[in-house]
Amino acid sequence: MSDLISLLITIAIGIVAVRFFRAKNSHEKIICFYFIFTNIIILVLLNSVTTFTEILDIIILLFLLKLVAILFLLFNKKKI
Question: Domain spans of the chain?
């Protein structure tokens, strides 16, 4: 079951990566970037044996990544 979930997440990463490279504005690129790296982190979590503290560290990193994306969208006035 874990292999199937990993395969589906990998396919989703590929599809969103194509969308990232075809995006016209910065908002689409930021959303795609966040989605790709969130799924990569989830994929790493699925394929490794982790403890609760490591999972907590990863969740904190995801929130920091979301904060960076939100701040970039707030303060970026021009297109990428």
Answer: 2-75
Tell whether the torsion through CA atoms of 60, 62, 66 and 69 is positive or negative.
positive
Q: Which amino acid is at 71?
A: L
Q: What is the pLDDT of residues 13-36, one digit of tens each?
A: 899 899 889 888 877 888 888 888
Nearest to 36 by CA among 57, 61, 10, 58: 10
- Read off the DSSP letter of residue 24: -
Is the pTM higher than 0.70? The answer reads: no
With b meaning 16 or more CB within 10 Å and e meaning fewer, what string describes 15-24? ebeeebeebe
**Which helix (H) or strand (E) element contains residue 7?**
helix 2-22
